[in-house]
Recover the amino acids of this structure.
């Protein structure tokens, strides 16, 4: 049976998301920005929390873990390379590991860069990806602990997921990301199409995610650092993609 998802806002601009296996009743929270909205989402759906799948150690993704674990005795799965920075961890995972949520199976993808040990979760059967603060719609996370080269390689891994993969990220930043992206590629048609779609979603008070990898790939400038035209327009023709990526990221930091 297909996985069900429930998306909701947390904190100022974080997303919370639950994934649910209707077959077994198992339910995982992807990260836990704060306990109360997760509990409200559980109440609304009638689902019982069995697992928390953590993407990275930042407080806006982990602050709710202790309270949720105390209430639900759920299992906490966290990235191996930064688990020591996260409280209440039961199980640590890394690249290629499989995580079961009831009958659902997630594959772990190492996506370092934003933090040194950041991971993403991909459910191949449902084509769902939970990418934390690595990939945002029309943007990407800040490179805080890793290097631009590391972050670029992580983004390429996510870019290589099947076109019809729906990805869920950690924050609602899409509108600001689009305003920046237009400064890099003012004539990108895929970006213009996404901008129209996002404007409608925002006007309707709806979240702008999930987005699909197939729609994101031609529109997100951070996934286009190996495009010859993008490199050329930044005065970086012939440079390795990660250097072009680093330049785009630098410009976004200053935007
Ligand atoms: Zn973060
Ligand atoms: Fe975050």
């Amino acid at each position: 049976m297909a996985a069900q998802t429930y998306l909701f806002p947390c904190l100022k601009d974080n997303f919370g998301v639950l994934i649910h296996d209707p077959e077994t009743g198992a339910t995982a929270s992807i990260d836990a920005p704060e306990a109360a909205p997760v509990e409200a989402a559980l109440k609304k759906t009638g689902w019982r929390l069995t697992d928390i799948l953590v993407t990275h150690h930042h407080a806006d993704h982990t602050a709710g873990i202790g309270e949720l674990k105390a209430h639900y005795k759920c299992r906490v799965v966290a990235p191996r390379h930064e688990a020591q920075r996260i409280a209440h961890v039961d199980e640590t995972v890394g690249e290629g590991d499989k995580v079961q949520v009831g009958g659902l199976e997630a594959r772990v993808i190492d996506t370092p860069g934003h933090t040194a040990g950041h991971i993403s979760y991909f459910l191949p059967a449902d084509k769902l990806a939970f990418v934390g603060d690595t990939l945002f719609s029309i943007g990407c996370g800040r490179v805080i602990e890793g290097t631009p080269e590391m972050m670029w390689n992580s983004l390429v891994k996510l870019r290589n997921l099947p076109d019809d993969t729906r990805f869920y990220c950690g924050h609602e930043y899409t509108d600001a990301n689009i305003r920046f992206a237009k400064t890099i590629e003012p004539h990108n048609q895929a970006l213009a199409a996404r901008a129209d779609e996002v404007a409608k979603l925002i006007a309707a008070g709806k979240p702008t995610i999930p987005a699909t990898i197939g729609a994101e790939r031609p529109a997100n400038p951070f996934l286009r650092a190996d495009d010859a035209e993008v490199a050329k327009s930044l005065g970086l023709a012939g440079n390795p993609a990660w250097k072009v990526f680093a330049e785009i990221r630098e410009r976004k930091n200053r935007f």
Remarks:
- The first strand starts at residue 4 and ends at 10.
- The chain has a mean pLDDT of 98.
- Residues 4-254 form a domain with the Metallo-beta-lactamase; Chain A fold (CATH 3.60.15.10).
- The longest helix spans residues 189-203.
